[in-house]
Structure formats: structure tokens, C-alpha cells
């Protein structure tokens, strides 16, 4: 069975208030979308509820967007501009044990950037950030707290050769991909563990064709040709163990992973028209789900934790029950977006914002908001240009007068 994780799951609605006048405070929920344009170096912040633009930020090039559990910022990885920028989300959720406080302000592009040749992967773990620069073969490490405080100085770890790699912080240790000695342009061959002094510890952990990583609960999963390399923190350093693909599976592998929230599992691609639900505790850890057409993008729901969403090239959004392993609802949402031709063409992307699933529609210049409970289209938000990559930041908490 999928293992339950004891995480706080913030309830989410579009924008609602419940008075608690005895304490001169109100309970509020607020969500903000950050949307990157496909062609222009621009990120737009949109406040759900009013659906108005609360910020527009010019960057060096079109960006991939990431956020972290702190919800304090959105990070824009600009591969063509050789830098990573931080945009303060304007949403602060303070944990007070029995409740959280919510403060909302305007988003802001911060001055401090991390620069280098061709940044690609962004990984955060417990407040530590690792950025991997493919053009240099360098991992740059820093704390989120320092960055948001204006200090983007990094500790750098350089590997044998530039390659399409990844680094992941794990306490005082850092996991970094190792390039192929024969052909650094090929996918990495495994993972090295680096100590606090920057030297490697132990032998290479083999992971041929390494591509894709995600955390769920206390475990980091890294996708390999033969299965998932599972990583856990331990007293004497990280423990790494391969979860192999079953011999009964059809040919294929996962190269993109998402980690479950509150239930420990991973959702991955597996060929063009399947996804894999991966549960290491199950008798059969890999369950494949056939899709009606080729997959464009997918996302997990951190609030309705048994659900994930998959958008397919026929323009349909599907709700996947990860417990039963079945698609239980489908909504026709856009015109078809063929997966033929280049991978980088503008196609829809998903983000879960409380009670809504936000789906970008770059060719229509819109974001479709789907009600997560009824799985019907709630409304559309017009966005200039070609809205593409998207993240949602928000949550619930007490607001004090």
C-alpha cells in the first residue's frame, strides 16, 4: 500500500475568509500563479480570486520555473541567459504549531542571481539548493535563506566533464551525477557522494542513463535505465539502493519523476503513452497506466493526495487515482497539441493551486482553471503572449488585523 506521510496539508480554496473575531484575526486562503512565456523572457504573477496581474518580471531568456516547500520564492532557470533568478513570491506562511499565519504582499524580482554556463536542474532539500550547470559540469550550492536575504554566494563542486547532470543536497552531503568517460554528451553513468569538504566518499553508485529525480517523504528517487536509485539519509552518510524494474514490464523507463505528498510514491513517465505509479513497499512496485493518447505533462495534487493529473496530446485532462491505478475522470480542455516534432514547442503545462488545476494553453493565450472537486472548467484567464511553464504558490493561514 502507499505509505502515508505525516505532513501538514494546507487546505486551499480560491480566496475565502472565515472570521475568528475573538482573536481579531481571520482565516484566509490565497493562491498566486507564476507563468513564464514560451518565447519572451517574461514571468507574470496572477492572483487567483481577482485573476489580476500582481507583477510582471523581465528576465534574460525564457525560463523554467520552480518553487520550494517554504513558498517564499519562485526560481527562474534561464538556460539561454546563463543565470538563475529568484522572485520573492510575496506569500509568507509562518508556522506557529497549532496554526499558520498568512501574509500576502506584492511579488518582487530579487537582485541576487546565480550565474554560470547553461543552468538546467534545480533541486531543493530542507532549505538547501543545488543548481547544476551543464555547460561547466559544476554544481553550485547555497541556502535558500541566504539567497532570499540577498546573498547568492555559492559553494561550487566541479565534476570530471560538462554533461547533462544533476546535483542534490542531502544535509552535509551532496549527490552529483558522474558523466560517461567515453562520451560526456551521453546521459550520466551514476551518482557520486561528496562530503562537506568537497571530496567523494566511497565508490560510484551505478545508474546508467541517469535522468530525472524527485523526493517523496524521506526518500530521494533517481531514475536510471534499470530502475530507481533510492536515497535515504543515514547516520554514516546517504544510503543508496536500486529498486529494479520488474522483468514483466514492457520495454521502457522513467525519465521524469514527481514525488507524492502525504503518501510515499512516485509518478513517472514510461514511454510516450503510459505513466508509472511507483511504490517501493508494494509487491509489484511499478504499476503502469495506459493513456488514451501521448502524454504532454502531468502533476500531482498535494491536497487531494490520492489524485494526479495527466494532460494528453488530444487536448484532454485526466484525473488519475494513484491508489486504484485508474483514470476516473476526463475533461476535454483544449485543441489538440501533437507531440510530434521538437520537445521544446509550446505545449500545455499543469500546476495545482488549492481547489483548482491550472492548465496553460500557449496557443490560445489562456490559463484554464479546472475545479478540482467537480472536475469541470471553472473559468479561463486570458494571458498575453504564449503562457507556458507555470507554478502555483499559496496556502491558508490566519491574517491579523
TrEMBL record:
Keywords for the protein's UniProt record, in alphabetical order: Signal
Task: List the signal peptide residues.
Answer: 1-24
Classify the source by domain of life.
Bacteria
Asked if the keyword Signal belongs to this entry, the reply reads yes
**Is S-adenosyl-L-methionine there in the keyword field?**
no
Give the Gene3D superfamilies listed for this entry.
Answer: YVTN repeat-like/Quinoprotein amine dehydrogenase
Question: How is this protein named in the record?
Answer: Uncharacterized protein
List the lineage, top down.
Answer: Bacteria, Pseudomonadati, Pseudomonadota, Alphaproteobacteria, Hyphomicrobiales
